[in-house]
Prior knowledge:
The chain has helices at residues 19-27, 30-45, 49-62, 65-72, 81-92, 102-111, 113-126, 129-132, 142-146, 158-166, 183-197, 226-242, 250-262, 264-278, and strands spanning 100-101, 176-177. With 279 residues, the chain is mostly helical. It folds into two domains: 1-96 and 224-279; 98-217, no CATH class. Strands 1-2 form a two-stranded parallel ribbon. Helix 1 (19-27) packs parallel to helix 12, helix 2 (30-45) runs antiparallel to helix 3 (49-62) and helix 7 (113-126) runs antiparallel to helix 10. The longest helix is centred in the C-terminal third of the chain and has 17 residues, at 226-242. It is globular and about 45 Å long.
Amino acid sequence: MDWQSSSLIDYVYDNSASCLAQITVCVSDTVCNRYLAPVLQACMAQCDRDRCQLVTQQFYADMPHNVAEMLVMCKCDPSDHACWEMTSALHSGTCGAQTRICQDTVNQCVQDTGCRELLKSFREKCWGPEDGQCRDSDLQTDECITRMDPARIHGADAECKIAFLKTLGTSLHYPCACKGMRHDDLLSCNTVHDVLHNRSHFMTPLKSVSGPTKPHEINESEQDPSWPHDYVLYAFATVLLVGVAVLIPLAVASKIWMLTKKEKTKYQPHQKSNCVLGL
């Protein structure tokens, strides 16, 4: 199935919608739905880590730039835990609850030849020569990391955005935090997190940021881990039930989801099983 037949081929995203709304737009499109299904199956329904990373990289590598930007350059409200969980699953190429120290995600990337080349390209496209160049052996050092100054990033540049999007599905986007870090280690950790997890640097028009963002922390007592999983599975069920050739408007999909949530006890287990088997 070719992206040229997608209704999203000329889609223009204005940075105003939430990430969950943009994912629903993808679900409602026949082509985007088909490519998204393996990602959800490997990264959420079954949590197959190796396959999750592979299909996530393939998902973003094959899609048009404007569709990738729609799904990645979106926003989650700081209190919207479901949105953060969903975007983590679709952007990181991993699954499960493991959170790493941010420098460790860079170290892991540098050890992999393919990821290392993507990191080098990202640095070259998004910073000037004086900031972007580091020897391969120095890419994970504090000195090299801190030269990726968020204030100097060329985030609005098309080539920079493309280089950033190509890193999706690699270890660079694994969920990370800076707990326990101090002094230079904390500075490096916050730099990595701000550059790779703060989408505002790459949005058009570029959103201003006052400083490095702090890693998002989820309160386990408040989060409902089944919520984002149910949200997309119900959306998939809606599309599949009416036929893959039919486009479901966002408003209709949202209403169906709300109705199914009200009848969760009656319908949820059966629909989860059918949706996963049908992918």
